Amino acid sequence: MEQHRTRPRTRGARRDAPPPPPLPPQAGRDPHRRPPRPGDRAVRAAVRPQAGRPAAPRPGTGRPVPAGRRPAPAAAGAVRSARRMPNPRLTGLGGGLFSGVLMLALGGLDLLLFGGSLTVYGVLFLPVCLLTALWVRASDLLSAPVVVPIAFAVGLLPVADGGHGFGARMMGLVTALATQVGWLYAGTLAAGVVVLGRGVRRAVARRRAASRP
């Protein structure tokens, strides 16, 4: 009988066999590890400081500041400081009460510290006039030059020289008003200039708003 020859199996791989498929990207990694998400890379890039840029030193300490936490410029700091300043809006009656009470308190303080000096009282009257004209609301601008002279007279009550009677006190008040009329006119004029400037600015803003389409 004719016997068929059997070819021995080769241990190595065939030369003409196709190469094995490449392993998936997940091969060789921890199976319990969470796969990366699209947002993780963006978050790491935002948190990670930019390479190649040295960190600016922190003012006053000499320590470097990260790129994302650099201090604001001086202009921005000045704007924030201006915004923190008080900016009330007083009515006409509120402006009169504010200036009158403040001048009465300053008159008493002048009497205690400077012995009732009329010159010191007149100097303190000027900033009160400016504050009253700046803080009164736009609809009551004309009330500021009217209430500051009244506040000047009210503040003179503890400062004016006079006797213990009502008549003597009123004579001292009239005398103080006559001798310090220069400070009275100066404060009233300062309040009028501020009110005039605010009124012109308000009129220009209205005209610009009306001219816009």
Tell me what you see in this structure.
There is one protein chain. By secondary structure, the chain is an all-alpha fold. The protein is built from seven helices and two strands, in the order H-E-E-H-H-H-H-H-H. It has a two-stranded antiparallel sheet. A hairpin with a 6-residue loop joins strand 1 and strand 2. The model has no long low-confidence stretch (mean pLDDT 75).
How many helices in DSSP terms?
Answer: 7
Order of helices and strands: HEEHHHHHH
- Give the CA-CA distance, first to last residue: 112 Å
- Tell me the number of strands: 2
Strand order of the largest sheet: 1-2
Strand content: under 5%
Low-pLDDT residue intervals, each spanning 5 or more residues: none
Overall body shape: elongated
- Fraction of residues in helix: 55-70%
Q: Return the average pLDDT rounded to an integer.
A: 75
| Class by SSE composition | mainly alpha
Secondary-structure blueprint:
Elements: H1 38-47, E1 56-57, E2 64-65, H2 74-84, H3 92-114, H4 118-135, H5 144-155, H6 166-179, H7 181-211
Antiparallel strand pairs: 1-2
Features of this protein?
mainly alpha, 7 helices, single chain, 213 residues, two-stranded antiparallel sheet, 2% strand, 2 strands
